[in-house]
Design goal:
The protein is α+β, with helices and mostly antiparallel strands. About 20% of the residues lie in helices and about 35% in strands.
């Protein structure tokens, strides 16, 4: 197996492990009808940081929409020195408070 395929496979495995270990259900039988039924781990956030102003992060999702999120001292940060351009995966409340945030590393094809 080529080195780039192994890197991509490793990233996929890491992402699946993160979701499984974080308690965020990857597949739900049905959508909750009440936002309070989302659970303690929140909703999955997947995107790229566009800007940071103190505790306020602007994150662009994979559909291109940019939304504001609040990162506080209670937020679990996996990684350090978050900055604009970082790809992240995390867990957020419906109100936009980030419960946990992890840097996602992207593989360069052909590297």
């Amino acid at each position: 197996m080529s080195r780039s395929k192994m890197s991509v496979l490793g990233l996929v495995c890491a992402g699946v492990s993160l979701l499984a270990l974080s308690g965020v259900p990857a597949f739900a039988a049905e959508e909750p009808s009440d936002p309070s039924e989302i659970g303690t781990m929140g909703q999955v956030l997947l995107g790229a940081i566009t800007s940071i102003d103190g505790e306020n992060y602007q994150i662009r999702d994979e559909n291109g929409a940019t939304m504001p999120y609040h990162v506080s001292k209670e937020t679990i940060l996996n990684g350090s020195d978050f900055k604009a351009g970082d790809h992240v995966i995390g867990s957020v409340t419906p109100e936009g408070h980030v419960l946990a945030l992890t840097k996602r590393f992207t593989a360069k094809v052909g590297a």
